[in-house]
Amino acid sequence: MILPIYAYGQPILKKVCEPIDKDYPDLEALITNMWATMYNAEGVGLAAPQIGLGIRIFLVDTVQSMEEGEEDKGIKKVFINAQKIKEGGQPWEYEEGCLSIPNIKGEVSRPAVLRLRYMDENFEEHEEVFDGINARVIQHEYDHIEGILFTQLLKPIKKKLVKRKLDKIAKGKTTALYRMKFK
Predict the structure, then answer these.
(1) What is the pLDDT of residue 183?
(2) pLDDT of 145 strictly over 90
(3) Residues 87, 96, 121, 141: which is the catalytic one?
(4) Which domain holds residue 42?
(5) Residues 6+ apart with CB under 8 A from 32
(6) Which end of the chain is more exposed for a tag (fewer CB within 10 A), N or C?
């Protein structure tokens, strides 16, 4: 089932999310619905707060964005109760967008390498190192479960330039090619 994506201005997007355990109700259906919702919106990642849930789960599929023949460098994973262990490497800027903030993009600087501990959908624990675009997408989705939006990481001048657009999104005055939920 395709779920509505919560738009900028929804309080859930600013909250630090709570961990879950393997007995979380209908977890398998939730994950299936999150994948369907993300693909319907043509995203590469989706976090639980973006569908109105204050829990520590997000998913990422960078395979679809890799160049032809490079798909094996991408990842398609579910991350439950993720915790950053360490970030490092040379920070690099990249233009990010967000399904909760349609029609706004901006350059965000993030460390190139991320070490992350997380549970997969079977509640098996993993600790992995990610880099490049995989690290970036994970960092963006991880920020969601920490109540941080990419617009908070923009340079001050860009923040000023997008403020009016953000206010419009919060008031429901935007368009997207997918269902959204406004205040």
Answers:
(1) 81
(2) yes
(3) 141
(4) 5-176
(5) none
(6) N
